[in-house]
Design a protein that fits this description.
Strand content: over 45%
Helix content: under 10%
Structural class: mainly beta
Number of strands: 63
CATH class of the largest domain: Mainly Beta
Largest sheet: 6 strands, mixed
Number of helices: 5
CATH architecture of the largest domain: Sandwich
Number of domains: 8
Oligomer: single chain
Strand order of the largest sheet: 2-10-9-5-6-7
Length: 918
């Protein structure tokens, strides 16, 4: 009975597991609330998630009225055919997907919608409530009006056609407007289509508005963010007011132009000009973009010292603003200028007889715009040769004489203003006295000499001049004498060499009666500027030989430097190889000397070539040396690269050195079919040559390539590079697979792989074995189409279906090396899985029933049966329990002697083999 209890328990658990596999409640996927915008499209979504076959599927609308409540059929599927009874509703997508597009043309479509599915077994329904909203649009209007002289502005902001009612607020300078001076009036208007319009009016006096814009802020559920609309409004600006006066001449008379000026204000300023007079005055008005000007023309002599007032009125002023200006009063006075030779007292002037171009300056003090001057001497006209120049100078033409002495009177006048200046002029007799000379020393360089000039000018009497030189220095000198208007000048010239290697000083000695002792003027000649020496070299190749050219240039003061050439330990270079020296005078007076030496480089290889310079500024000759380099063999380097966008490889041989030519070659195996090319570039004295060899990898894989450069006299330079040997041994599948072998050879011809139907992003992982730096891998179906790859994995991106079953071939390649693998992909669908589960459950249940029946029968009849019956039942049970297979693996028949022993060894077992494709 214990055995029977265990069998019953296993049966119950197996049946429960089968019921659990097949159990599943169908569901509907539907949003219960949906909001749509008037005038736009909305999507009513409803999806059946069960697995029963759909008989009918449809959308209905619940309509409730005072009379009755009914459901209106809108769209759906009947007998597998879609239908729609509304022109603004589309056909559903499928019998299990009742998603439709509805054009929301009015708010009347708002309400409850019912999604219904009818299957062979039962019906399902769910409700969806559709809410309709309308997006408003904003209208702005600005209006202005004047009340009791004050200007007001009204800004109207309307949110038209909104549902539900929008919200409107205002911002002034980023903040809500205050109660004063702003007022806000709000009104709402309902429309027949179910929408409404909300209007808000912001009103304020213009002269209290400081900001030039206000912002209307509209909020509504259809707007993701509040809509801000900026409105420009009129504002008043406080003006800057000033008053100014300037003098002008009109018709020969002076006038004050007094201007009242208002700038930068808005609106226009009211300007008035206040004067304490009743006479008619000339007034002028002008206005430009930013400035207003009101001017009045006043006679200068009538209004001197009087006040003029400008009065300004503007809405930004709390009261009228005044600006006052006081016109100046005129005054006039005169005195002698500061250029008098001698003052005895403020009204006396003493001048020297015989002086030429005498000028007596008359200085006027006052603030008059102009004045007139008249002068006389001793109550008579001015003496001959004296005249009034301009309005401030008495000028004597010619030498001053005794007739110019006397009492002078000059009168300055401007209208009714007058000022008188009296002064007495005395003439001091001429006395001859020694006049010291003006001494000057100058130094110049001309034609290779230093020219020193010493002058003693305008002396009475003439000065004596001599030169004082250092011991051992001699030069050429001479003197010139000139006279003019009783004064005498002498000039001495001294010539010295322009260039000396030491510093020397020359002195000019001057004797004159006005000097208590001789006056010396010395000038020091500096050291001669040392020459600038430059040396450079260049090489060139000609007929396979290298030649060197060395240039030596010397910039110095005159005369030009002398250049000679030496090599090694001081041996002179043959004149055959030295060019003649060239001399050139530059703009700054320097002299350039140039010389070149041209010779075969091998003659002086590794030696020094020296440029020797001699010049008067040098105490000893100077040398400049350049080293002639020893010729070095070229440098070789080789490399092999794989070319992009080409199946060919490239061997590169770079050669760097001097005079590298075409004597560069590749040593290749026999029957080489590649292509070679040579390219050369120059970098100064160095030549870079590149020899390339283009070849397929299969021709030279595992071989050596050698680049050879042939030197002179048969010598060579070599560089060798090895081409690696590559291989790909196999492509393996990393997923769990079952090998499929050939019935003849027993070799694996494909790998069986099971994937799940309707599963996304399933991958088949691959692995490439071999010796390659990189490889390309692609997979194809049996029809030749490519499979999507992610690296080295096959990817089944969309939901996998049974159409994807079949044989796939994946190939890895690196140039001519390849390897492939075949994969038999099988797709296990959910229907197959359920059917297989049902079959397994049914077969398991049947097997358990059979085993239970056999066990009960065996227990009940075991003791009462004969040996023949016992043997027959055991044989039947034994045949039932044997696994199917080939005849050679079946168990032998029971003999008479083994009956009893065999009966003791028989055991019963149930094996449930559920083969899964996962």
């Amino acid at each position: 009975m214990g055995c029977s209890g265990l069998l019953v328990l296993g049966f119950v658990l197996n049946v429960a597991h089968c019921v659990e596999i097949l159990d599943g409640d169908p569901k509907l996927e539907i949003p219960h609330n949906l909001t749509a915008v008037l005038g736009e499209d909305a999507y009513l979504s409803c999806r059946y998630l069960g697995e029963n076959e759909i008989v009918t599927a449809q959308w209905k609308r619940q309509i409730n009225s005072k009379i009755q409540s009914k459901r209106l059929r809108l769209a759906g599927f009947i007998n597998g055919e879609p239908f729609s009874r509304q022109h603004d509703i589309s056909n559903p997508a499928s019998p299990t997907n009742l998603t439709v597009k509805m054009n929301v043309s009015s708010v009347e479509v708002e309400g409850q919608y019912i999604c219904e599915f009818e299957t062979d077994e039962e019906n399902f329904s769910e409700n969806l409530f559709l809410t309709v909203v309308a997006r408003p649009y904003v209208q702005i209007l600005v209006n202005a009006e004047t009340i009791n002289g004050s200007r007001y502005q009204s800004v109207s902001c309307s949110a038209v056609g909104g549902r539900p009612v929008p919200q409107i607020s205002w911002l002034v300078d980023g903040r809500p407007p205050s109660d004063y001076p702003y007022t806000v009036n709000v009104s709402e208007t309902a429309h027949s289509n179910g929408t409404s319009t909300l209007s808000s009016i912001l009103r304020f006096p213009t002269h209290l508005q400081e900001e030039d814009s206000v912002i209307c802020l509209v909020q509504h559920p259809t707007l993701p963010n509040p809509k801000l609309t900026t409105v420009r409004v009129e504002t008043y600006i406080r003006p800057n007011v000033t008053i100014k006066a300037e003098m002008v001449q009109r018709g020969g008379s002076e006038f004050w132009v007094v201007s009242c000026i208002s700038s930068g204000g808005r609106p226009a300023t009211n300007i008035s000009l206040a004067l304490n007079t009743n006479e008619e005055l000339q007034r002028e008005y002008s206005t430009d973009t930013d400035t207003q000007t009101s001017s009045v023309l006043l006679p200068a002599t009538v209004y001197e010292g009087r006040n003029v007032t400008c009065v300004f009125g503007h809405p930004k002023f709390t009261h009228k603003v005044s600006r006052v200006i006081t016109l100046p009063s005129f005054y006039l006075s005169g005195e002698l200028g500061s250029n008098r030779d001698y003052f005895q007292d403020p009204e006396s002037l003493e001048l020297q007889e015989g002086r030429s171009d005498t000028v007596i300056s008359l200085q006027v003090t006052g603030n008059v715009p102009h004045y007139n001057v008249t002068c006389k001497k001793d109550d008579g006209p001015l003496p001959e040769g004296m005249e009034l120049v301009g309005s401030s100078n008495l000028t004597v033409q010619g030498p001053l004489e005794h007739q110019h002495a006397g009492l002078y009177e000059c009168v300055f006048s401007y209208h009714q203003l007058n000022a008188t200046l009296k002064f007495n002029v005395t003439v001091k007799p001429h006395v001859i006295q020694p006049v010291p000379p003006t001494v000057r020393v100058d130094l110049q360089t001309e034609d290779g000499y230093r020219v020193i000039e010493c002058s003693a000018a305008d002396a009475v009497p003439a000065a004596n001049m001599s030169w004082l030189l250092p011991e051992g220095v001699s030069g050429v000198s001479w003197f010139n004498f000139t006279s003019h208007n009783g004064s005498h000048s002498v000039k001495g010239v001294l010539l010295l060499p322009a260039c000396t290697p030491w510093e020397l000083t020359a002195e000019c000695v001057i004797n004159h009666p006005a000097f208590e002792e001789p006056v010396n003027r010395s000038i020091t000649l500096p050291l001669c500027a040392r020459p600038h020496i430059a040396i450079n070299s260049s090489t060139e190749w000609k007929d396979g030989d290298e030649y060197t050219k060395v240039d030596c240039s010397v910039d110095s003061v005159a005369p030009a430097a002398t250049i000679t050439w030496h090599a090694g330990n001081g041996d002179s270079i043959s004149s055959v190889h030295v060019s003649l020296s060239e001399m050139e005078v530059q703009a700054d007076g320097l002299v350039s000397a140039r010389s070149s030496a041209h010779f075969l480089s091998s003659l002086y290889s590794g030696q020094n070539v020296t440029c020797r310079v001699e010049h008067p500024s040098l105490e000893a000759p100077e040398k400049r040396t350049i080293h002639i380099l020893v010729h070095k063999p070229p440098v070789l380097s080789v490399s092999v690269v794989r070319q992009e966008d080409s199946h060919l490889w490239l061997a590169v041989c770079d050669c760097r050195g001097e005079a590298v030519g075409n004597n560069l070659a590749w040593v290749l195996p026999k029957n080489a079919k590649g292509q070679t090319s040579l390219h050369s570039t120059y970098e100064g004295r160095v030549i870079k040559a590149r020899l390339t060899y283009q070849f397929p990898l299969a021709y030279h894989e595992g071989q050596d390539l050698t680049c050879v450069y042939h030197l002179e006299h048969g010598a060579t330079e070599k560089k060798t590079i090895h081409i690696p040997r590559y291989y790909i041994s196999a492509v393996r599948v990393l997923n769990h697979t079952t090998p499929l072998q050939s019935r003849y050879s027993g070799e694996t011809i494909a790998h069986r792989l099971a994937l799940q139907e309707n599963h996304h992003n399933q991958r088949v992982l691959l692995q490439v074995e071999g010796n390659v730096p990189e490889y390309n891998i692609d997979c194809r179906r049996s029809d030749g189409s490519f499979v999507q790859m992610d690296g080295i994995a096959m990817v089944f991106q969309p939901a996998l279906t049974e159409q994807e079953e079949g044989l796939y071939t994946c190939q890895a390649s690196f140039y001519h090396h390849t390897a492939t693998v075949n994969i038999q992909v099988e797709v296990a669908s959910e229907d197959k899985h359920i059917a297989l589960a049902i079959m397994i459950c049914a077969s398991s249940a049947m097997a358990i029933l059979v085993i239970l029946a056999v066990t009960l029968w065996a227990c009940c009849k075991g003791n009462g049966r004969t040996e023949y019956k016992k043997q027959e039942s055991l044989s039947a049970l034994t045949s039932l329990m044997q696994e199917p297979g080939s005849p050679e693996v079946k168990k032998p028949a029971v003999t008479e002697n083994d009956k009893k022993e065999f009966a003791q060894q028989i055991s019963y077992s149930i094996v449930i083999d559920v083969k899964s494709t996962v």
